[in-house]
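Researcher: Let's do a round of design. I'm pasting the structure tokens now; please hold your answer until I've finished.
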């Protein structure tokens, strides 16, 4: 315990904490894409242990949350005014959440572009196949192409989302360490271990996107209670992972830290997660209902009736943008900052913050983050594909892939 009564990190943990990702990155002979895949595989393997342990905690805890009890969500709604106060004291947070909102909206629009590339005859064939059998196995190749495009968009959007989430955590860590809070310092602390944070954000966002799509109303659709249990086990089991990664933990150590928070503050962690999820659910339902009223009125003016799916998701960009603004700017900061506060109350991070700041001071001003280079290059390539998709013949290529499905 330190003089403030916080449990300190052991010497073994400090030695196990890694140096900032930027150090020695360029000299690594392993290709960047291979390192990313290895990192994703290691991440999911390490944190799946935490998810399973969290599921056990959720099933065995004596203080099981009651869904229709206000007390279940009290921890989250009490965090809302504290979040607004933190934003007032550290206006940098507002900039971070706005960047996240822009990333979500642009990512969604980039995803809908893949639907626009599908030719009319393919849409007609899809409609006919669905009319014959809603669970038709046709268009497997087309689905794989769309799946790959979706993952690419999620991976790219996860860079600014992960960076800004880590920067919000850095605001809390700097204050807990009695360090001055500036935009540059927040970005520096967040960027120090952004490689692992980016990889975790990709996996976490992919799980979230799949859960959202799985919950959308659809014929023959089903999402079991076990699916929801696994989802919330992941979310609660990894609640403290980002604060731990910001402070240089490995995935396994971050998962252990997160489980420590869940076991020591079970009711508070569950209250924060369930309250945040409930608020997001209400916003999402309202956005979906709004979209159902908006789409028919606007789509009737479109001459091309075959592209109903594309038109639907394109017009849904309006309610999605509104819902995303409420979630990212108002609801999510309360959750992120509350978890970060619980983490620093349990674990002293002063030494880690000082280490990152000192390490980054030694780097030359001309040092360019390899992750930033990779991200900007990938975004530029994606933008080129979107702007010149017709000239590149992507519609013809998708049509050819679809014909492979038909035959």
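Researcher: That's everything. Go ahead.
Model: Designed sequence:
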């Amino acid at each position: 315990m330190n003089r403030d009564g916080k449990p300190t990190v052991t010497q073994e943990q400090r030695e196990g904490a890694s140096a900032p990702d930027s150090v020695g990155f360029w000299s690594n002979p392993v290709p960047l894409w291979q390192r990313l895949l290895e990192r994703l595989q290691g991440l999911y393997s390490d944190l799946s242990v935490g998810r399973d342990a969290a599921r056990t905690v959720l099933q065995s805890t004596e203080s099981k949350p009651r869904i229709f009890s206000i007390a279940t969500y009290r921890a989250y709604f009490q965090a809302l005014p504290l979040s607004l106060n933190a934003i007032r004291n550290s206006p940098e947070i507002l900039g971070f959440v706005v960047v996240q909102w822009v990333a979500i909206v642009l990512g969604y629009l980039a995803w809908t572009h893949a639907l626009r590339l599908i030719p009319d005859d393919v849409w007609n064939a899809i409609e006919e196949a669905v009319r014959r059998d809603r669970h038709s196995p046709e268009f497997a190749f087309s689905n794989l192409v769309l799946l790959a495009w979706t993952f690419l968009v999620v991976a790219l959007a996860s860079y600014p989302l992960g960076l800004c989430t880590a920067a919000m955590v850095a605001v809390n860590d700097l204050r807990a360490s009695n360090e001055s809070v500036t935009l540059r310092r927040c970005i520096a602390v967040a960027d120090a271990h952004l490689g692992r944070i980016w990889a975790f954000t990709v996996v976490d966002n992919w799980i979230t996107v799949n859960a959202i799509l799985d919950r959308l109303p659809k014929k023959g659709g089903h999402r079991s209670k076990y699916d929801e249990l696994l989802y919330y086990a992941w979310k609660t089991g990894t609640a403290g992972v980002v604060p731990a990664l910001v402070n240089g933990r490995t995935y396994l150590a971050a998962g252990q830290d997160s489980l420590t928070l869940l076991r020591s503050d079970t009711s508070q962690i569950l209250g924060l997660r369930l309250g945040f999820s409930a608020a997001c659910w209400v916003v999402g339902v309202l956005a979906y209902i709004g979209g159902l009223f908006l789409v028919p009125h606007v789509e009737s003016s479109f001459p091309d009736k075959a592209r109903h799916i594309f038109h639907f998701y394109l017009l849904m960009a309006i309610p999605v943008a509104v819902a995303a603004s409420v979630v990212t700017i108002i609801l999510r900061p309360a959750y992120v900052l509350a978890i970060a506060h619980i983490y620093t109350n349990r674990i002293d991070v002063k030494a880690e913050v000082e280490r990152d700041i000192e390490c980054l001071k030694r780097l030359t001003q001309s040092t360019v983050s390899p992750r930033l280079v990779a991200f900007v290059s990938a975004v530029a390539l994606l933008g080129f594909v979107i702007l010149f998709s017709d000239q590149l013949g992507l519609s013809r290529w998708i049509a050819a892939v679809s014909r492979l499905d038909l035959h």
